[in-house]
Specification:
Length: about 240
């Protein structure tokens, strides 16, 4: 196995990445495949933190659009991320990787509270840490949570897993046949062009802290290993 190009990374997994071919929920086979690839990367000595979304279960914005109070809807979305973190933890531990879930909202029966220094210590002890419940605050996305946690734990890069696209495009390739793939772009250009890399708050936080973002297609789980080994996959935002 070749040497890793990074010592510590944060992997942002969307809820959709856990669905497989299902319309909603988590596909056990898909979760196991992702866990196996994370275990492979972990075996290289890479310290891995994960922020997981909940689009496969519940989207706070959809609830708000239906007339629900936005804060209430967002809290429901945070709880949904915990529901995704637990099967991922189970799959990782069955793959032989010690894993801890830290939640930004208190669910002490199933997860530790988020404590930055404890999270860093877990990583140093070669445990994978899954950050659940976003930032613990409504009106912030799990993209922002990924940018915040990556900065807090001194990750060297964010690996931004996308569902069904190879990276960043000039437009949505699902609706615009003329959309062009962008191999590299700066944080500021992504913000100015309103490209769907992350939300603007998350992108700004990454820009201010000089955090590179690798945007790639999670449909091929081995892309994680390729990026960690220094190969150019997807789009680099830096």
């Amino acid at each position: 196995m070749s040497d890793a190009a990074f010592k510590r990374i944060l992997l942002k997994l969307s809820g959709e990445a856990l669905m497989g071919e299902m319309e909603y929920g988590t596909d056990p086979d898909r979760v196991r495949a992702i866990a196996a690839e994370i275990a492979r990367v972990h075996s290289r000595g890479v310290e891995i933190a994960i922020v997981v979304g909940a689009g496969n279960i519940y989207r706070g914005m959809a609830g708000a659009a239906a007339g629900m109070d936005r804060a209430t809807a967002d809290y429901m979305g945070m709880i949904a991320t915990v529901l995704n973190a637990l099967p991922l933890q189970d799959a990782l531990e069955k793959a032989g990787v010690n894993t801890r879930v830290q939640s930004a909202i208190e669910v002490s029966e199933v997860a530790e509270p988020y404590i930055r220094r404890r999270a860093i210590r877990h990583l140093e002890k070669q445990r994978v840490v899954i950050f659940a419940a976003g930032t613990g605050n409504p009106f912030f996305t799990t993209d922002t949570a990924a940018a915040l946690r990556a900065t807090e734990i001194h990750a060297e890069a964010i690996l931004m897993a996308k569902h069904g696209v190879e990276g960043v495009y000039t437009a949505d390739p699902a609706t615009d046949p003329d959309a062009k793939f962008i191999p590299t772009i700066s944080h500021m250009e992504a913000i100015q062009q309103q490209l769907r890399v992350m939300d603007a708050t998350a992108l700004t936080l990454c820009m201010e802290n000089e955090m590179p973002i690798y945007v790639f297609n999670m449909d091929d789980e081995s892309n994680i290993d390729r990026i960690v080994c220094g190969q150019r996959v997807g789009t680099l935002v830096s």
